[in-house]
Amino acid sequence: MTFLSGAAVLLLRGLVISAVLGLESSYTSQLSNRVTPEPAAAAAAAVVAPTDPCLTVIPPCMNEADRFSLEALRHIHKQLDDDNDGGIEVNESVEFIIEDMKQHQTNKHSNLHREDQHITVEELWRGWKISEVHNWTLEDAVQWLKESVELPQYEKNFRDFKVDGNTLPRIAANEPSFMSMQLKILDQRHKQKLNLKALDAVLFGPPLRPHHHWLKDFVLMISIIIGVGGCWFAYIQNKSSKVHISQMMKDLESLQNAEQSLIELQSRLEKAQEENRTVAVEKQNLEQKMRDEINGAKREASRLRELREGAECELSRLKYAEEELVQ
C-alpha cells in the first residue's frame, strides 16, 4: 500500500510539473511577444531548472509574484524554524510571537497551526494561497497600510509599485532591496513596523477589527443623555436665576425709592416739627405778651378807678371812668 501511494504521489507530481511547464512556456511566449529579452534572460526563461522550488509546491507558482512570495515564505519559515528540522512547532511559534514580534501570548499560534503541529514550507505555502490576505487587492493593502500599520505617508509608494496581498510576504521577509530600492522606505523604524505588521498578517491572518461593544455604546448614550439633561437643567436654572435677579433688582429699586421717600418724609416731618416748635414758642411769647398787656391794663384800670373814686369833681370822675372803660 505504501509503495502504491508513493507511486500515485509521484504520478500526480509529474502531471503537475507538466502543467507548470506548459504554463511557464505559454507565459514566456507571451512575454517574448511584448518585450524582446536579452539573450541570457531568454535562455534562462527557456530552461527551467528541475530544482526550481516553484515546481515542488502545490499549488504551483503561477507568475513572478508567486515566485517572490514563495521565496519570502521560505525565508520566514527558516526564521521561525529554530531547530532547523524542517517544520515549525507550536513552541517555536509562541516564542517567535513573544520574542520577535514583541506581542503577549495569545491564541494567534492556533490560527497558524490549527490541527497541524509541524508546519513545513509546503504547508505554509498552501495555507498562504488560501488565506484571505493573499487575495487582498491594492485598495485592501493601502487600507491595511493606513489603518493597521498607521503609515499613510507611504500610500503613494504602495500605489506606484501596485502592492497587493501577494506582495506582503516580501515585506514580511524584510527584503532589503525590495524595501529600500522599490518601495523606497528608508526609515529603519518604519521598516521594522511594516515588517512586524506584515508578518502578523501573513502568518496569522488579517488584523481583527475591534468588536462592537454595546455596553460602551449604552454607557456613552447614557452619558450623552445625562450631559444634555445637565445642560438643559443648567439652562433652566440660568434662565430662572436671571428672572429672579431681575425681580430682585426691581424690588431693590422699589426699596430704594421707598427709602428715598421715607427720607424725604422724615425731612418734611422734622421741618414741620421745627415749624411747630417755632409756632409754639411764638404762641407762648404772644400769650406772655398778651398776659403782660392784660395785667398792665388791669393795673392801669385799677389806678384809674382809684383816681376816679378819689376825684372831687364830676367831670374828673367821668374822665377817669372813660379811661378805665378803655382799659
Automatic annotation (TrEMBL):
The keyword Cytoplasm does not apply. Residues 1-22 form the signal peptide. The keyword Transmembrane applies. Residues 252-314 form a coiled coil. Residues 136-194 form the SAM domain. PROSITE patterns: SAM_DOMAIN. Keywords: Coiled coil, Membrane, Signal, Transmembrane, Transmembrane helix. Pfam families: EF-hand_STIM1, SAM_2. The chain crosses the membrane at residues 218-236. This is SAM domain-containing protein.
